[in-house]
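Assemble and predict.
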Amino acid sequence: MTLSGERFRVVYCLAGSETQARVTAQRICLEQTVELPEEVVPAGFIRDEVVGRIEIFETGPTGFEVTISYAVETVGAELTQFINIIFGNISILPGVKVLRFELTPTLFEKFHGPRWGRAGIRELLKVPKRPLLCAALKPIGFSAVQLAEMAYQLALGGIDLIKDDHGLTNQIFAPFEDRVRRCADAVARANEQTGERSLYVPNVTAPFDQILARAHFAKESGAGGLLICPAVTGLDAMRQLANEEHLGLPILSHPAFQGSYLTASENGMSHFSLLGQLTRLAGADAVIFPNYGGRFAFSKEECLSIVAGTETVMSNVKAIFPCPGGGMTLERIPELLEVFGQEVIFLMGGGLIGHSPDLRANACHFRGLVNRLS
Amino acid sequence: MTLSGERFRVVYCLAGSETQARVTAQRICLEQTVELPEEVVPAGFIRDEVVGRIEIFETGPTGFEVTISYAVETVGAELTQFINIIFGNISILPGVKVLRFELTPTLFEKFHGPRWGRAGIRELLKVPKRPLLCAALKPIGFSAVQLAEMAYQLALGGIDLIKDDHGLTNQIFAPFEDRVRRCADAVARANEQTGERSLYVPNVTAPFDQILARAHFAKESGAGGLLICPAVTGLDAMRQLANEEHLGLPILSHPAFQGSYLTASENGMSHFSLLGQLTRLAGADAVIFPNYGGRFAFSKEECLSIVAGTETVMSNVKAIFPCPGGGMTLERIPELLEVFGQEVIFLMGGGLIGHSPDLRANACHFRGLVNRLS
């Protein structure tokens, strides 16, 4: 069989001595493709082209950086198999981290990424320039009526994207359908009053057989976007939402259960590759991540590397919004505007709820701050 | 609202000083449920019952071990939300590891786990006692005809479970439907000759919208089981396969892309909880993992903790097979029989292919060794 010769590239950071790193690099080439000891790999195109190939081996700031190329034919047309090739078995080996990847025209034809991206979301909201604002409905335990009232106040206060907390699923407190109907209605009512276009973004992280049904229900009920935790549902469920016919809602990706890829310095995937590149390739229009200086441990540099991943050139895959959140407060807005600029969605959850008992006033204050400073 | 008072428990290992660990424990209680600063958590049942509760705080061998209980109502009936509660946001915080969890009657009514389990697979194969044997069809690049010939030889040689390599998906070399038909036929032909009941186990790790279709196609084509990588597809896709009507095939769970939960000592999930308890709860009948002393870094103790997780009492959730593989060789069988005993599936991939050019003879040798020693 003759292959096309088209090869995509993955850059890994390898721990250990140079000798160890060279052994690991060879091993990745086999492990991620033929999964055979080298001596029994069939000669011919399998040995010459299917096996991964070391293209560059160099010293990086935190380890040896090796660029390995793979034949596009090993992936076929499936994002699931792409994930498996870049970091399937090798995820189990300590000391291997995916730094970034570079696709090829054939793969870009197959993986379209987000439907809306930054420009699309701005167009939906009719907000051409300023940073967008997002707030969360919570907590678990509130009724659908209470959550809808929150949504109403937040929309009146000028929040662009009003999302479910990712822990709101289908519990007895606020069952999915009832909640979605009420919250979507509440936001629509507020929009009529304000003349703005706030979007309600329900959480469709759900059992496998209910994700699409909930997404379509949400759309029919007037929701303006969808929230999903791709590490819980599988990244490809998000791609499906982005590609699903007659759906067409912007998608926010939430990092719950995804942290283990990111917490270890020597293992896993870089913030750039996982929350930037891969999340984008899997169809998210915005990626939520814990902001530096909040409750989690991401550094400013890591956050900015996510931003870079959301906009790095990837053929015609659209740039998506970084959406820093998690322990943010209104006091930090001026600083965050300087760091993230205009192309960002600021997510404020507890910080907005805790600012004062008047949620609408808090939202107005948030919006006013952003309007004034940007 | 009045809750049932029924609470399930998760045991976390926390790094750092005792003071730090106590702060982290409090934080988990909020983060995994209401996701609000403590001062704004609504009074009443939300503060008293929805928020996680520290039940035990003690010193463990590798850190502080804290047992946190959560109201069953925070989960509802969904495995996806169960995953989110036990390790959603908190996966992003360094120094938190899930050690184990304990469900309650209400949750056991909702999560049934595997359909077959150890006893069911033995019944399907009519092998009451000895360890079971599994081998893999590979590599990527082989045609469906070549893979089917391998399957035929392996079945003639007495291998019980003949699985696709997890990297065989739907590439041009051996497209899914053609491969599955040919391999299932090959194993059926061999079974007619041997009088045994080898099962062909194709890989249904696939795009979201194709998993079920491939699984049903496999069943209709005579496949005897299904292989899936739940970290790629989402764990709940596996649960769906286990629960799917008119399917009813045993399921092998493959750890590709799952390693990041396991590679760091202080973060992630324990081998026991992820590859034992959770994989089982999500419907696998057998869990593949890299054996100690092979190509990966799992220790013997970690492997045995997986075994413990496959059989620890979990109400009426069936015990499942541990399936150690990854760099195993025939020479190690005597040792492995001593370590794992009879209730195991030995997976041999490259080690079987590399033993000699005669695959059937290698399989016979493998089977003979196991027969003789067990």
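The two ends of chain A are 57 Å apart (CA to CA).
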